[in-house]
Amino acid sequence: MSFPYLKHQSGIYFPIIPLSVSYNNHVEKTSALVDSGATTSIFQISIAKRLGIDVEKGQPVFMRGVAGRVKGYRHTVEITVANRIVSAAVIFSEEYLVSLNLLGRESFFNHFKICFNEKKKVVEVS
Q1: Which positions ≥6 away from 118 have C-beta within 8 Å?
Q2: CB distance 6 to 13 below 8 Å
Q3: Residue 20 and which of 26, 62, 76, 85 are 20 to 30 A apart at CA?
Q4: Average pLDDT over residues 77-106
Q5: Minimal CA–CA distance to 71: which of 79, 80, 81, 61?
Q6: According to the model, what pLDDT value does residue 67 have?
């Protein structure tokens, strides 16, 4: 399935795709940036709250980046993309505030063939 890049509020186009996230029979429709540079998937804390996830009951993890070390919690959720449901680890953090949900390589990319076409501004997920 092909998804056109979406224009972010910054004016830049990104490979952002629509998806559903499920946890304990709660479903939330959202979107996420397909980020080949990210190891893990990181979603906004508001998604966890709407799904009824008690964030701090997840596996504690520490992420490192330019801003230093940030604590998050890993949870396994079901993600539906292109009519396929996959189980994926997602990190939620009160400290790391993301403007976009991020789909990283770990436990997401291995379920799909992903092709970025920068020239046409399209990402294919199959």
Answers
A1: none
A2: yes
A3: 62
A4: 91
A5: 61
A6: 62
Angle at 115 between CA 109 and CA 120, to 5 degrees: 145
Kindly state the average pLDDT of the residues 110-118: 95
Query: Under a CB-based contact definition with an 8 Å cutoff, are residues 90 and 43 in contact?
Result: yes
The domain total for the chain is 1
Q: What is the CATH number of the domain that holds 18?
A: 2.40.70.10
